Amino acid sequence: MPCPECGASVEVALETEHVCNPERRIDFELFQLRAEVSRLGEEIDDYLASAQGRFEQWYAEHERRSGRADEPPEEPPDEPGA
Ligand SMILES: [Zn+2]
Question: Which of 10, 43, 79, 81 could form a disulfide with 18 if both were Cys (CB 3.0 to 4.6 A apart)?
């Protein structure tokens, strides 16, 4: 049984006696975090490659462009003496 806190393999009989090594525990947490981050990265890549993701990207781009075009043209500043 790996310890859920530090990932050390702990004999079931010794489970109650096991004390996590703090360094090992930090390593294990970082390892899990990295695995999670890389999984998230893959999910984002997958998402962006999907039809929905491609649509979202197109839509965001479209919104950015048309949002600007829909704005009324700026009045030229009335500068005295110009
Ligand atoms: Zn432990």
Answer: 10
Any residues with CB less than 8 A from the CB of 25 and at least 6 apart, and which?
A: 5, 6
User: Taking the domains of the chain in order of start, what are their residue ranges?
Assistant: 22-68
Return left, alpha or beta for 7; rule: phi > 0 is left, psi -120 to 50 is alpha, else beta: left
pTM above 0.90, yes or no: no
Q: Are 10 and 2 in contact (CB under 8 A)?
A: yes
pLDDT value at residue 27? 95
**Contact status, residue 64 vs residue 70, Cβ threshold 8 Å:** no
Whole-number Å distance, alpha carbon 38 to ligand 1 midpoint, is: 24
